[in-house]
Amino acid sequence: MLDAALLSADQRGMETAAPNQAPDIEIRRLRLSDARELAPLISAYNQSLFRGPPGAPDTYYAEQLLQDRTAEVLGARLNGDLVGFILFYDIPDLWTGMRCGLADHIYVDHRHRRKGIAKAMIDLLAEESDGRGWSKLVLHAPRNPGTGRQLYEKVADAADWRSYVIRFVHREPDNRERGVDTL
C-alpha cells in the first residue's frame, strides 16, 4: 500500500559517496491533516505553470482535494517537510479490460529538485501496479520541453496518443462548494 515508504539515496539510484549525501525521502499518501502543508505547494505548482505572482495558499481547496473520491495524492517529505506531491487516479483501461494509473500532476519544490524526489514518487506509484491490477501508468507531461519533461522521457516511453483540452473558463471554480450540480 501507499501508506509509507522511506527511500534512501541508494534506492533512488543516486550517488551516495558525495560529501553532501542526499537525505532520505519519506513518501506516503497524504491525509486530510496534511492539507495545511499541501496548500502552499499547490500554489507554487500553479505559479510555476502559469507564471506571475503565486496565489495565496488555499487550505480549504487542499482539504477538498484530499477528500476527493477519485483523486489520490502522494506526498514526499525531506526532514519532515512536505516538498513534493503527485496527484493520480486509478481508472478503467478500456483497451485491456484492466485498470490503469494516471498521474496528472507532479511537483517538487524548486529548492529540492534534482534530488530524485519526483522519480522516487513515480517509482513508488509504479510499484503499486500489481496490487491495483494496472496495465500501465500514464504520466501527463508538460507540453513545453524543460527540466520537468526530461524526467518523463527518462522513466517512460512516449504514448501512442496526443491529448487535447476543451477549457471551460467561464465557469466559477466554487460551483461544487455551493452544491451546484454541473451534470
TrEMBL record:
Domain N-acetyltransferase: 25-173
Molecular functions (GO terms): acyltransferase activity, transferring groups other than amino-acyl groups
CC terms in the record's Gene Ontology section: ribosome
Presence of the UniProt keyword Transmembrane helix in the record: no
Keywords for this protein: Ribonucleoprotein, Ribosomal protein
CDD domains: NAT_SF
Keyword Ribosomal protein attached: yes
Superkingdom of source: Bacteria
This protein's name: Ribosomal protein S18 acetylase RimI
Native source species: Fulvimarina manganoxydans
